[in-house]
């Protein structure tokens, strides 16, 4: 009888080698997952900040255009809108009122209900009343400062400095960036 000799092949891995390999792979997978998660959060924050910046920029451009073209004619609309026939603007805490070039009285400012930036129009305009900012953002601070008053004798145009601070609404503080804007606007004298 022929006896077959059994070969003792030691091909394969031991249990210890497999466990060490899995531990190393798990470690690298954890690092890669952490980096991916951090990059997703920072991308989301950047997108929120970009949208916040665009909202604030829209409000500032809207105010700059409307105030630069606002009326400085001594009219009944102006005195009922601003409370003074000689001034084109009336300011109060968190808002400004002015007469537009087409004789509408507009009040723009922060809503006390939801901290949105609102526009309220009286005078028969086709423009709708309503918010100028998205409900995803809130106005934290809105200040108006009259730099130089208009005078009927020296024909100086008033300049207004506007400061706006907005913040994204979020339950997570890291996803709630805050942006500040400031500009100075001078009224165009279209009547001279």
Structural class, by secondary structure, is alpha+beta
Task: Choose one word for the global shape.
Answer: rod-shaped
Strand arrangement within the widest β-sheet reads 1-2-3-4-5
Q: Count structural domains.
A: 1
Order of helices and strands: HHEEEEEEEE
Describe the 3D structure.
The protein is α+β, with helices and mostly antiparallel strands and 192 residues long. The protein has one domain (36-186). 32% of the residues lie in helices and 28% in strands. It is built from 2 helices and 8 strands. The protein has helices at residues 15-68, 76-82, and strands at residues 89-92, 95-99, 105-110, 117-122, 130-131, 137-148, 159-168, 178-186. The strands form 2 sheets. It has a 5-stranded antiparallel β-sheet with strand order 1-2-3-4-5, with helices on both faces. Strands 6-7-8 form a 3-stranded antiparallel β-sheet, covered by helices on one side. A hairpin with a 2-residue loop joins β1 (89-92) and β2.
């Amino acid at each position: 009888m022929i006896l077959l000799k059994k070969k003792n092949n030691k091909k394969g891995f031991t249990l210890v080698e497999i466990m060490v390999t899995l531990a190393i792979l798990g470690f690298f997978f954890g690092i890669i997952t952490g980096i991916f998660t951090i990059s997703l959060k920072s991308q989301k924050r950047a997108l929120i900040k970009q949208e916040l910046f665009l909202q604030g920029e829209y409000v500032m451009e809207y105010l700059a255009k409307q105030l630069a073209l606002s009326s400085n004619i001594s009219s009944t609309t102006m005195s009922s809108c601003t409370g003074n026939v000689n001034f084109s603007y009336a300011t109060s805490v968190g808002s400004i009122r002015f007469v537009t070039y087409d004789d509408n009285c507009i009040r723009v400012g922060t809503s006390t209900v939801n901290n949105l930036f609102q526009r309220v129009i009286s005078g028969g305009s086709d423009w709708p009343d309503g918010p100028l900012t998205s409900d995803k953002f809130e106005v934290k601070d809105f200040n108006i400062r009259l730099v130089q008053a208009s005078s009927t004798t020296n024909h100086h145009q008033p300049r207004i400095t506007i400061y706006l601070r907005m913040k994204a609404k979020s339950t997570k503080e890291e996803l709630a960036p805050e942006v500040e804007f400031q500009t100075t606007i001078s009224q165009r004298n279209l009547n001279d």
